[in-house]
Write a sequence for this structure.
């Protein structure tokens, strides 16, 4: 092992108590990170002050604005890769490891793959390049192998990334802000020839823990209105990712399916259907006009449209 083997950074935004719990679980791992960096998107100093009190050895970067998981990811990866760390955990403030030996198992798996491995994690899937949808990894696939190669590891699924790939310019796209920035990053790694691998045992254990061993695709369901803002980013950013990778069939599939879902949601009432349709139309419009500076956030129904 080198002197700079493994570091971690956590992107946070106005959740200091949740962050402290995640930090504790990261540091209590059987193989904890040699350096912990907090990328602070907060609009106040609550997190900075709490870190100084509880974890004074944690490095801290105050971004100065909410850069999202994408912008914070770019800052954290570039900072630690330039410092020479071979492996880097990219985490959100509510993404603690699932077991005490999660990091140890993933890093051992990464080493077994050698220089071709660009990323390891717990949960991952392959991408259907015709529809733009993820193909759910079958239980049988996980049961028949120790490690499984996938196309993407979602945010929150313990993404540990090879620092050398970051030094080659493979970084998150900051303008995506939130949603599918992980898929965009992972497809960039794949294009560069890196393998993305998940640990089958950890994956299966997590499915059992969440009682998801027999989950099947479900019908369109009504979401709570407080989370509808996420759909804006999902639609806008997925269109960007499909076009960037020249998955044009998937691009139009996502476009038409999003419009169709908007219409179907009127079955939950005119007001609800209108909210979903407005989000969809805004997402398509802002993608087409490259309005990446627009922000739709919970509790803030009026978008921020001022360019930075």
């Amino acid at each position: 092992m080198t002197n700079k083997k493994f570091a971690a950074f956590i992107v946070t935004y106005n959740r200091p108590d949740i962050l402290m719990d995640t930090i504790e679980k990261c540091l209590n791992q059987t193989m904890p990170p040699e350096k912990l960096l907090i990328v602070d998107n907060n609009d106040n100093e609550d997190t900075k002050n709490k870190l100084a009190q509880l974890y004074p050895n944690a490095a801290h970067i105050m971004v100065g604005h909410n850069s999202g998981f994408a912008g914070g990811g770019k800052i954290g990866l570039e900072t630690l890769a330039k410092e020479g760390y071979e492996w880097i955990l990219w985490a959100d403030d509510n993404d603690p490891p699932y077991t005490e030996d999660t990091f140890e198992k993933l890093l051992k798996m990464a080493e077994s793959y050698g220089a071709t491995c660009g990323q390891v994690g717990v949960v991952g899937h392959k991408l259907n390049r015709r529809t733009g949808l993820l193909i759910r990894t079958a239980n049988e696939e996980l049961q028949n192998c120790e490690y499984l190669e996938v196309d993407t590891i979602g945010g929150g699924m313990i993404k540990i990334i090879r620092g050398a790939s970051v030094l080659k310019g493979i970084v998150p796209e900051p303008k995506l802000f939130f949603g599918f920035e992980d898929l965009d990053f992972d497809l960039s790694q794949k294009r560069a020839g890196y393998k993305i691998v998940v640990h089958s045992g950890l994956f299966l254990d997590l499915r059992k823990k969440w009682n998801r061993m027999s989950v099947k695709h479900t019908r369109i369901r009504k979401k709570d209105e407080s989370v509808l803002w996420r759909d804006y980013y999902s639609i806008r950013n997925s269109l960007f990712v499909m076009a960037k990778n020249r998955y044009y069939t998937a691009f139009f599939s996502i476009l038409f399916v999003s419009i169709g879902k908007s219409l179907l949601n009127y079955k939950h009432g005119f007001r609800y259907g209108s909210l979903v349709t407005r989000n969809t139309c805004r997402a398509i419009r802002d993608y087409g006009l490259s309005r990446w500076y627009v922000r739709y956030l919970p509790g803030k129904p009026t978008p921020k449209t001022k360019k930075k």
